[in-house]
Specification:
30% strand; Double Stranded RNA Binding Domain; alpha+beta; 187 residues
Length: 187
C-alpha cells in the first residue's frame, strides 16, 4: 500500500519528516479497507487565510473498486489538519465496510444511480436536496447587497436581485476577504 500513497503540495515544501508522517499514518487505511487502490493527499498552505487556524488545508482522496472517499480539513498545523482529515475518512470507512453495491436488477449498475450522501455526524443517509427555502428578493445594488450580507451574518454568499442589471446575482466572500459577484446568463 505504501507505493500507492501520493502526496501533492501547493504553496509549501514537502519535507521528509512530513512525508514520513503522512505515509506511516496512511498505511492504516489499507488495513481497514483492503479494496483501496490508491490514496492521494493534497497539502495546501494559504498565506492569506482569513484566520490563522485555517492556514493549512489537507485533502484526502481514497479510491478503490466502486468507491471514492474524500475529505478536507483545515488547521493551523499541517499534522493537525492531516490527523483530523484522517479521522473523518476513518469514520467514512467504518460506514462503508460490509456494504456491497451490486446491480439493481433492471439493467442499470449501482454506479448509474446517484450515491447516497451520508451525514458525517449522525451516519444517516441525507436526501439529495435536504432543505428548500423561499424568500422575497428586494431589488438592490451591489453596495447594498454587501451591507445586507454583513448585517444578516451571511459569511459565504448572498443571493440578491440586482436593480441595475435586472438579474439575480450571487455575492460571495473570497478567501482573501474581498467579494466576488456571480452574474448568471442563460446558455
Amino acid at each position: 500500500m505504501t507505493e500507492k500513497i501520493e502526496v501533492q503540495t501547493h504553496n509549501m515544501e514537502l519535507t521528509d519528516r512530513i512525508n514520513d508522517y503522512i505515509s506511516k499514518k496512511s498505511e492504516k487505511l489499507a488495513r481497514h479497507l483492503p479494496q483501496l487502490d490508491d490514496v492521494r493527499v493534497d497539502l495546501t498552505y494559504y498565506k492569506s487565510a482569513r484566520s490563522e487556524l485555517d492556514r493549512y488545508s489537507v485533502e484526502i482522496t481514497a479510491r478503490g473498486k466502486k468507491m471514492l472517499l474524500r475529505t478536507e480539513e483545515r488547521a493551523d498545523d499541517v499534522r493537525t489538519a492531516f490527523d483530523s482529515a484522517l479521522d473523518k475518512i476513518d469514520r467514512q470507512i467504518e460506514r462503508f465496510k460490509g456494504k456491497h453495491y451490486h446491480g439493481r436488477g433492471d439493467g442499470r449498475s449501482a454506479s448509474d444511480v446517484a450515491e447516497p450522501i451520508i451525514d458525517d455526524e449522525t451516519g444517516e443517509v441525507s436526501p439529495l436536496v435536504a432543505r428548500r427555502k423561499k424568500f422575497t428578493l428586494v431589488p438592490m445594488n451591489e453596495e447594498e447587497a454587501v451591507v445586507q450580507m454583513r448585517d444578516l451574518g451571511h459569511d459565504n454568499f448572498f443571493v440578491f436581485y440586482n436593480a441595475e442589471t435586472s438579474k439575480i446575482n450571487v455575492l460571495y466572500r473570497r478567501r482573501n476577504g474581498s467579494y466576488g459577484l456571480i452574474e448568471p446568463e442563460l446558455g
